[in-house]
Design brief:
Distance between the termini: 101 Å
Strand order of the largest sheet: 3-4-5-6-7-8
Radius of gyration: 27 Å
Helix content: 25-40%
CATH topology of the largest domain: Inhibitor of vertebrate lysozyme, Ivy
Strand content: 15-25%
CATH architecture of the largest domain: 3-Layer(aba) Sandwich
CATH class of the largest domain: Alpha Beta
Number of helices: 3
Order of helices and strands: HEEHHEEEEEE
Largest sheet: 6 strands, antiparallel
Number of domains: 2
Length: 176
């Protein structure tokens, strides 16, 4: 009988111990991906910040050319310094896509207040939908003004250093 009384509590304790181990394993398995994601996000933030601060002095070579003109190996639109600067400045994926892929009318790239500026608009919809990208050649930082009349007829969205603000008026234009 003595062995039977010792055996009964073990039968009750074993499933509880097993459940505790399983719960801990699940918690460990969830913690590892969360820690990995946090580390990846931190690395991406550091990488984006480094790219945003990268000098882009050679972007002046595009002045006088259209954004889609090849100057050397790249056009303005596919130049790595431009795409990195725009990615660092603009948090809205839809706006970034318009800037990167927009094939509408454009003016030649110019200098505005020491910044290399590219103005483009949507084909057959220029007045109501346009944007300008200004990149400081010393810091490589971009400022993007984005206007979409369907969203707000009297306001523009400015993207600077990953932040967005709304301002009255329209985007500045590049005079060719």
């Amino acid at each position: 009988m003595a062995s039977r009384s010792l055996f009964s509590p073990l039968l009750l304790i074993a499933p509880l111990a097993l459940a505790a181990c399983t719960a801990q394993d699940k918690a460990d398995n969830q913690t590892v991906p969360q820690a990995t994601n946090a580390a990846e996000n931190a690395a991406a933030s550091v990488n984006a910040a480094a790219h945003a601060a990268a000098p882009a002095a050679d972007l002046a070579r595009y002045v006088g050319h259209y954004p889609f003109d090849k100057v050397g190996d790249h056009s303005w639109q596919d130049d790595p310094a431009v795409t990195q600067a725009v990615t660092a400045a603009v948090g809205d994926a839809t706006v970034r896509k318009w800037i990167a892929d927009g094939e509408g009318p454009a003016t030649p790239i110019a200098l505005i207040d020491g910044k290399v500026a590219s103005w483009t608009c949507e084909t057959h919809n220029c007045g109501p939908h346009q944007w300008i990208t200004l990149i400081d050649p010393k810091s490589g930082a971009a400022e993007v003004c984005y206007y979409d009349e369907d969203v707000a007829a009297d306001k523009v969205r400015w993207f600077i250093a990953g932040k967005e603000e709304t301002r009255a008026g329209k985007c500045p234009e590049v005079n060719s």
